[in-house]
Amino acid sequence: MGIVVFTDSPLFQRSPVAAVPSILTFNTFLFDIRLFGLFRVYNSAPHLQPRLAALPEALGEVGADVICLQEVFRKPHRAFLAETLAGVYPHAAGIERRGLPLGTGLMILSRHPIETARMREFRAAFLEERLAIRMGMLVSVLRLPDIGRCRVINLHLAAGGMFGHPESVKAEEVRRRQIGEVLRAADEPGPELTIIAGDFNAGPDSSAVNYRYLLDAGYLDAFAEAKALPGQPPAMEMTWDPANPMISGELNRSLPRQRIDHVFLRREGMAGRRLGAARIVLSERRVALAGKGPVPVSDHYGLCVDIEAGG
Asked: Which domains are present in the chain?
């Protein structure tokens, strides 16, 4: 998996610089699956072009040091985001993808150098997903200021396949096996601090058995830990809400509000480091549509987590 460093003049240069290192995970819902770049396999996500156009500014305003993106399946979309944000995030992984199927849709953008990056497809997967895409993880090593070298795993776990319920026994079993693959990758030699971020399609109130698997393996849920800190104000807690106008379909609209996008940190790698604030972001309706009200940039909301030196 090639690492790209942009050095030419960027199109986008506005972004706040975080006071402490931070990680953002965001499922973009740029769902547009085409074989050979031409033939659509599934219906594309609604309002894709205006949302894509609004995404660089939205991501830049969050100001995270590292951005983990999911569902950026098409190479032109990956290139647009990487090139437009190059003035703020000159380091990128996950842009290139050769051959068929069309890949995992995963990208990492970073203010800081990415030492290594490798895409790994999950062995456990739904058959219908294997026909055009691959669920998987993008495993990278980078160095954050004040924090040092860390392994960042950007992932997208299975929902219910293309046709099933995301909380079915089969879906939970596929995710359990995928999480096992992630944990084995995290146990390979490398930096002591491991960060696992992405769309897990599971949380404390939905498919909790998958969510607890990470906790039982020694990982901290950054949002839950930050919420427990003294002096933390009440915050939005859901990253997926059927009231979001970007969500359609009878099954999706019947599901409850959920927190299924997470940043997990390995507890044993947190020596000399501590969690700071965690916040749900990118929930505002900022994309104007002709003849319609504005919509959010995705069907998911983002999660941004601060990691501080000390502890």
From this structure: 3-309 (3.60.10.10)
